[in-house]
From TrEMBL:
It catalyses: 5,6-dimethylbenzimidazole + nicotinate beta-D-ribonucleotide = alpha-ribazole 5'-phosphate + nicotinate + H(+). One of its GO terms (biological process) is cobalamin biosynthetic process. This is Nicotinate-nucleotide--dimethylbenzimidazole phosphoribosyltransferase. GO terms for molecular function: nicotinate-nucleotide-dimethylbenzimidazole phosphoribosyltransferase activity. It comes from Candidatus Lachnoclostridium stercoravium.
Length: 356
């Protein structure tokens, strides 16, 4: 089934289920709305799944791993070899996100969707999912990062992974990524989709000097000028100035919407992918949750554009899905309150009255 046919099957969330979930929260014997964004997220999940009896079941973290040709322009501190090393670390369970995932009771699924190396030293702790479209993208300062067909293949790979996880009983997907240079691609994508100057949405990534940051902004500006991506066409933006990791994450968001399953946006990079997913299918945003505010300059800007409220504001910017993993236990705590706490009626006290 082609992408267009998949997209036709994505629709809005179930408003009736959301109304029932809101009524359940109002009945719980605590001050109204006192768990803030966490309450809203449970209501959203009810709408996504079509069931006010919310159950997250098994939790998955999908980490899209790919290299970006834009590193040839000197916009990073490290080279592409780091992407391969960290990707292999995921499979051994040694990366930061893997340690956090153990604590959060979340299964980790690293995906090679475009790493520039063959990845021959992988482990079995978290087996690598091999969906490589190509060995890294091209330098988008010299032309498109990839073809439109390759971008669509990467999106379809993400959709298929989401569908497979749904079939295996997973109830929620957290998004993660690994790819040296992907804050540059993400800034380019966000600049185009939000029609905002590159300097307003570009940060230091894993660490750049003032001179390095200025060069990064210049590279993004030149790449956009050369390629002229169409902000109304998410696939066009991905193919011209994006990356395979971003395109794969777009597929996870679309696949989550297709399967009526919540997908947690991690930070700036997965937020850029979320913007592209919404550009491809507006309903996709209805199936997203925001974990935290990235410390990248456009972190809040992206969430605001998506209409998402984050639960965590801790200055995080690591990526790999670490922010999403920090959020999941909070979500489960609020779900426990939602499902098990006594109601005002059960303990025979008067309900709170809502004043606007």
């Amino acid at each position: 089934m082609r992408l267009e046919e998949k997209l036709k099957k994505i629709g809005p969330p179930d408003r009736k289920a959301m109304a029932l979930a809101e009524a359940r929260w109002r009945s719980v014997a605590k001050p109204l709305h006192s768990l803030g964004v966490l309450e809203k997220d449970i209501v959203k999940i009810a709408g996504m799944t079509g069931d006010p009896k919310v159950s997250l079941e098994k939790k998955a973290l999908v980490i899209m791993c790919a290299d970006n040709g834009i590193v040839e322009e000197g916009v990073t501190q490290t080279g592409q070899e780091v992407t391969a090393v960290v990707t292999e670390n995921f499979t051994h369970g040694n990366a930061c996100s893997c340690i956090m995932a153990d604590m959060a009771g979340t299964d980790v699924f690293p995906v090679d969707i475009g790493v520039a190396s063959p990845l021959e030293n992988c482990g079995n702790r978290h087996p690598l999912i091999r969906r490589k479209i190509r060995f890294g993208t091209d330098d988008f300062c010299r032309g498109p990062a990839m073809t439109r067909e390759e971008a669509e293949q990467a999106v379809m790979a993400g959709i298929s992974i989401a569908e497979e996880l749904k079939e295996k009983g997973y109830g929620i997907i957290a998004t993660g990524e690994m790819g040296i240079g992907n804050t540059t691609t993400s800034s380019a994508v966000v600049s185009v989709l939000l029609d905002t100057r590159p300097e307003q949405v570009t940060g230091r990534g894993a660490g750049l000097s003032d001179q390095g940051l200025a060069k990064k902004v210049q590279v993004i500006r030149e790449g956009i000028r050369r390629n002229q991506p169409d902000k109304e066409d998410g696939l066009d933006v991905l193919s011209k100035v994006g990356g395979l990791d971003l395109a794969g994450l777009v597929g996870i968001y679309l696949g989550g919407a297709l399967c009526h399953m919540p997908v947690v946006a991690d930070g700036f990079i997965s937020g850029a992918a979320a913007l592209a997913a919404r550009a491809i299918c507006p309903y996709a945003a209805d199936y997203m949750l925001a974990s935290h505010v990235s410390s990248e300059p456009a972190g809040r800007m992206v969430l605001s554009a998506l209409g998402l409220e984050p639960a965590v504001d801790a200055g995080m910017s690591l990526g790999e899905g670490t922010g999403a993993l920090a959020f999941l236990p909070l979500l489960e705590m609020s779900l426990a309150v939602y499902r098990t706490m006594s109601t005002f009626q059960e303990i025979h006290i008067e309900e709170y009255e809502e004043f606007l």
